[in-house]
Known about the structure:
Layout: H1 2-28, H2 31-46, E1 56-60, E2 63-65, E3 67-69, E4 76-78, E5 86-91, H3 102-106, E6 112-116, E7 119-120, H4 126-133, E8 151-156, E9 163-168, E10 171-175, E11 178-191, E12 196-208, H5 210-223, E13 234-237, H6 239-245, E14 252-254, E15 257-260, E16 266-274, E17 283-297, E18 309-318, H7 327-336, E19 348-362, E20 367-380, H8 383-402, H9 411-427, H10 444-473, H11 479-504, H12 512-518
Antiparallel strand pairs: 1-10, 2-5, 3-4, 5-6, 6-7, 6-8, 8-9, 11-12, 12-17, 13-16, 14-18, 15-17, 16-17, 18-20, 19-20
Amino acid sequence: MKLNILKIIFSFSFFFSFVNLNNAIAENNTYCNLLIEEIKNSQVGQRLDQKPMTYYWGVESGIIFEQIKDIDTDEWIFTRDDNGYLNIFTTKYKSDDGNIFDAYSIFNHKDKVIALNDIAINNLNDAEIKKIINPDLDIDSDDQISEDLNIKVKYITFLNSKIDEVLIKPLYTTDNFVTPEIVINNFKNIDSKRGHFEMNYLFSYYWQSPELALIAEKLMKDLILKEDLYEINYCEISTDKFSDLQLWNPSLNFTNILSESSDESSDIYLFEYYPPTENEESNFYITYQWIGTSLLYSKFDFTAFPFDSQILTLELANTRDEVTIDDQSLFSMFVASDFSAISKVPDWDMVSKEVVPTHFYDDYWSDSRAKYILQLRVERNNFYYIYKIIVPIMIILIIAWSSLWISPNELQARLTVTIVCLLSLIAYNYTYDKDLPKLDYATLMDYFILLAYLFAAVPSLIAIYAHNIYQASGNLASPIDIKARYLGPIIFMVLVFVISLLLISDNINTSVFLRNIQGLD
């Protein structure tokens, strides 16, 4: 009896072991696992840890114009202003031979090109412009470019609207683009006092690998898969598995991230293979996707507080090899995206967004590197400060100046009114202090309250002066009382207007509301 029970137990154990083994074999034989094995076997021979081969090479001027994708034709077209001028988005830094583009030290973001080689830009279509700025030459180095091959550019500077004309020399470049994308889900918090903001977003970037395309193509042939099964060429790879493959990664990231919430984030790599067609070679895309919540730092300017707007920045840079970022796609994706669905942050309204390309000196690489600053302009909801602080202060000032209608012989009554009003104003210093850090400069609200202090104290001085005149002459109709009743409030309003105008005239962090009142927009 015991022997039969042991046989049954052994049979069941063998059966389950056999099933698990078959499942393991089946799991290891999935397309994605086979692809991973092929990549591992080819890693050393093809040096897949190095930057992939490029799909693009040619001669360029170094100028990159703003482009946007046409919805109807699905093609990239140059953006133009009302005069038909081209907008410069950024410039390239170096060619493959290490020579610096002339355009890099000449042009700036938002400069406008009005003519190329003495031809007005509004008389040229996009194809003709590309032929001028990207000459079609069969060369593979800068030395092979003729010294006479220069491009004459007439342009308007963005900073001072100056018209200038220069000659720039094109250089030879090769590019393998990495295309970033960002989708902001919501803002969790904007802490202006600390210069922090927290948001949840999806960040991804993808690049092409011709070497992996050949590996995937070979695998498809070895497996003898039919054409209608090509859609299986999609694999999700964990970050650990991707790290084990030792594949090259451009490593894009936001350099102003302070911390990331590990318990609210996830990341993954995607492999996508597209077989060759009649018009195109096979393509293999690697995509990195990260979704989660990050705490980021941004520089805040409170000069116009509480009528201020702030720029929240996402500073995108390559932290590894310098590789060309597909800035046109970044510009189009970010600027054209609809942020209306983003949950509203208390105290703030989102008013605009922009991508500003720049360069920074990287101490580690001892060279200039590209950086793209994604700017989100948010404007403070100032209605709270208007009816909680500004309006009450104005009422207190009215009460303080109303003491001028009290007879000069009632000195104690007049001083009681003005001193109580002054003490009330001092209390208002603490109503907005919690919203600001300890600044080494005065804000618009600081100037307003300081003026309020001064004009709340002036009636006390006038009361003492008028009382002395009364005691000397017995005249209850003091001329200084009569004039001050009207001149004081007028002078106060004029000073507030002039100070606010001086503060906001050159300040980009002023709200649209205040600029409209001042007539600056």
